[in-house]
Design goal:
alpha+beta
């Protein structure tokens, strides 16, 4: 049986009140009545251990010993994340490479603190404002003189964009032992 992912505007809505459930994008688009995108987002409180997270979300995720979730409801999982993104590698933000003693990166001053959170996979309808805000690609935006003034949401939107080709793909070259016959130049034949 396939997983039926909820259709909702947020991960909380996906857990509590989805507008429908679908396994494929076409089905989700028909149920939502709009374009949809498949997303996986974190929700809920950060819990200190995996066992605490599995206990807190017992009806949502599979546990090793205990009741299993139905196959169509397996759209949630617990994930280990860094507890504080601002802490960086030891509290000082971004670490600089050192290249000392055969190592590129310094050892962190203190170990990173991690936490466990619930990750929900769902279909999110694409809103009109998100479709209107078609941003430049990251490779073009970073060359802009105002690139340093981008807010965090814009940077995240740039990171989520799929890459688009700069120019159309060029036709493939023929190899060293391949030739095109004059009577049929659209065919590439091996040449011995």
């Amino acid at each position: 049986m396939t997983v039926l992912y909820p259709i909702a505007a947020s991960p909380e809505a996906a857990l509590n009140a989805p507008s429908g459930r679908a396994a494929r994008e076409g089905d989700a688009r028909a149920l939502a009545g709009a374009e949809v995108e498949f997303v996986r987002e974190l929700t809920g409180p950060a819990l200190p251990t995996r066992e605490a997270a599995l206990e807190a979300y017992a009806g949502r995720v599979d546990v090793e010993k205990g009741p299993q979730v139905a196959p169509q409801d397996r759209y949630c999982e617990v994930m280990e994340v860094i507890a504080s993104a601002k802490a960086g590698l030891g509290g000082g933000g971004q670490a600089e490479p050192t290249y000392a003693k055969g190592r590129r990166w310094p050892k962190p001053a203190r170990p990173l603190k991690t936490a466990w959170r619930l990750s929900v996979a769902y279909w999110r309808p694409v809103t009109a404002e998100a479709a209107e805000a078609s941003l430049d690609q990251a490779r073009q935006a970073r060359r802009d003189k105002d690139a340093g003034r981008l807010d965090p949401k814009t940077v995240q939107a740039l990171a989520r964009q799929p890459l688009r080709p700069v120019r159309p793909q060029q036709p493939l070259d023929t190899g060293l032992f391949e030739t095109r016959p004059p009577e049929a130049p659209h065919i590439v034949m091996p040449d011995e």
